[in-house]
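Minutes, project check-in
Item: structure for the 288-residue chain
Input as provided by the requester:
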Amino acid sequence: MVSSHDPNSEWLHTVAHDLKTPINSVRGCIELVKQLGPLNERQEHFASRAMAGLQRMEHLVSRLLDISWVDAEVELDLSAVSLQVAIEEAVNLLDEMASTRGFTVDIQVDPRLESIVVDSHRLAQVLDNLISNAIKYNQDNGTITITAAPDGDRVRFSVLDTGIGISEEDQPRIFERFFRSRQGVALKIEGSGLGLAITKAIVEKHGGRIWFESLLGQGTTFHFTLPLDLQMGDGDDSSDESPLDRGEGQDGYVAAHTESALENADSIDDNVQENRASAHLDDASDEH
């Protein structure tokens, strides 16, 4: 349940959660049609298109549930997490996507860093969002570099790509909900416009900061910092200065801001709903 007094957040959570039932029902029907007998080429084409559309709907519903948690008053589920393992797992989940376009992925974790106290599920989501964006908006055969290094009592993560970059006109809005960059829309790169807004909220919920550097046609680097141990303090990393004010960036680069709220996505009764919608079928699921 969403622990929030915000009626808009509760309404969004309820609507997004209720959409899961018809989505699972449609998925079950598509799978049932495939099991009734072999499909001809045209039938297979339309069934595949329907399933792809369904997966996009599931992704959007998941994003909406995340947004409802962003606006809710909830606590993070903190535990010690290995930085090397967390980054490698995020990369492995996206390895197929990266390999099909010939990307080189370089992971650089400072050996002095072993673990960090975070919400492991949410850190994974941040890494997934940033790395998948680095893949989607990169050039074929490009490079993605992921680093983690000490930064005082914090860890500074960076995800660098050699992709299409972000125009100066779009940079001030890049963390807005539902905003899509002009380059992404023009190239028909799929996205909901919610990933970076959710990522920013997760980082700030941990008391961290997120910002980026980008040059159009040359690539983008997203940086974010997190406290090494949230239990040692409140983790507040906010200040009146932006990363640019402190010299962390160059002309034409844009900094993000601080302090918001977010937590765990909804998983209340997925199993019950999937069993109900896909009775007598083998479950099938997919999908950053």
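Outcome recorded: Residues 78-232 form a domain with the Heat Shock Protein 90 fold (CATH 3.30.565.10).
No further action items on this chain.
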